[in-house]
Amino acid sequence: MGDAIRVLVADDHPIFRDGLAMLLASVDGIEVAGTAANGREAVAEAVRLLPDVVVMDVQMPELNGVEATRELATRAPDVGIVVLTMSEDDGTVFAAVRAGARGYLVKGAEQEEIVRAITTVASGGAVFGATLAARIAQFFAAGPPTPTTAFPQLTAREREILDLLAAGRSNGQIAAALYLSPKTVRNNVSTVFAKLQVADRAEAIVRAREAGLGR
């Protein structure tokens, strides 16, 4: 099986993880290199084993799938990542894509769709499923939601948080959308206020919306 696609399955639910591993192991041309029960383990095992593809659950303890994907994009950039999750919301889709995922499937996808995603990503392609691909196309066809020249003093993450702030999201909603801890969001919001030299949330929202954010 020298030419087999080597896959690492990362999911914190043992029944789903083991079931998917068994399913993939039964497919000609795919070899299950290993499994991981949380995001931190997924990163460690992917760096150690260097599989062709990681099938990564989004909701995992210690390190969620989006953060694990972001870390792997730096530490093992040649490893393709297919994100597998229950959620179809745009925030999850774009967080995964920004983190470096090249495939995105919802749990409940047919075996053929999962295998096709793995083989496509292993060969350097990208696959997001018909419904999700259409959403991504619509998103980019609409143009960038925020002016890239606005607030150059902010980091990309801070600008992203300000954009959600301007859209009326609470700190909790921002944390959920970006897969960050509430404490990280609070710290970033405070930094944004300081950099913009605004006194409070309302003033920050006004400044952001005047610059075209929060659409």
Automatic annotation (TrEMBL):
Write down the InterPro entries for this protein, in alphabetical order. Answer: CheY-like_superfamily (IPR011006), NreC/VraR/RcsB-like_REC (IPR058245), Sig_transdc_resp-reg_C-effctor (IPR016032), Sig_transdc_resp-reg_receiver (IPR001789), Tscrpt_reg_LuxR_C (IPR000792), WalR-like (IPR039420)
Domain called Response regulatory: residue spans: 6-122
Q: Where is the HTH luxR-type domain?
A: 147-212
Molecular function GO terms recorded: DNA binding
Which GO biological process categories is it annotated with?
phosphorelay signal transduction system; regulation of DNA-templated transcription
Please list the residues that carry the modification 4-aspartylphosphate.
Answer: D57
Q: Report any Pfam family annotated for this entry.
A: Response_reg
Keyword annotations from UniProtKB, A to Z: DNA-binding, Phosphoprotein, Transcription, Transcription regulation
Q: What is this protein called?
A: DNA-binding response regulator
| High-level lineage | Bacteria, Bacillati, Actinomycetota, Actinomycetes, Micromonosporales
